[in-house]
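Journal club side-thread
Mid-discussion, someone asked how the predicted structure for our own chain would compare to the paper's figures. Pasting it here so we can look after the session.
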Amino acid sequence: MIAIDSMMVCLDLSDIDETLVAFSRSICERLPVKKVYFVHNIKSSELSDDFREFFGDVDLGNEIEGNISDIVNEHFQNAADHEILVSEEPNTEVILAELVKRYTIKLTLIGKRMSDKSTGALGTKLLRILPCSVLVFPETANFNIAKVLTPIDFSDASVHALRLSKSLTDQLGLSLDILHVYKLPTQYFPLISEEKAIRKAEEVVKEKFSDLQKRHQEIAGVPYTLVRAAGKSIAERITMQLEKGNHDLLVLGLKGHNPVPSLSLGSVPTELYNMDLNIPIWMVYSEDVIKQ
């Protein structure tokens, strides 16, 4: 059973805040969540001398906390125990990573605007530095989640994400699909038959699936799809499968190769994050990776 001891919701005082707070309520209504922290950092380096001269000694932190409190009261409505945290630090990523450690945050919720409105630079930094799993909610996504897609490459990270996805879908009565995108060593064509290479590649992958199902019998009945990259990136094939299958949530396992807080995001998750997807992306680190 999936239970979240503590969740952090990152707010930036934009129009997406109301959506994030409402979505956090939806999460609390579906999963056991003990406490939610609504956080915002006032980047002190961006407060110009003109601002300070014009507004004087106004307590900006208190004003922002009041604004967030109004949004929480309207859209969260005490769905779980919660607290509002407003800080004033020069580096937003660092203070958020410290909050994750201080309050043992298991899941962080961040919003994402379409590429024509934002570069997404802060989001990418947060994904790389936060020592916890992250749920990315695009501004165009909705709360109705019924069908989940989990791509796997048979690494420990992807298997962890798959098992979490299975627990989630069983718990909430959702549908789950597995996807594996494979590539062929095209540099050897036409020395070997392309048709033969495809057949052999799929045989190898099916053997891997069979072995995986034997080791984790809870996923034995979950349907899986094999897709050849065929000139497209793995991320592009994943997005095509999302559209084809009308999935509502993408769950990705993240690999950690460096000590926290410099967790390794990986090229496929980075590419997917930078795409204009219309569904939430749950990027999952295992506990073993986070404790490294």
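Post-session note: Confidence is low (pLDDT under 50) at residues 257-263.
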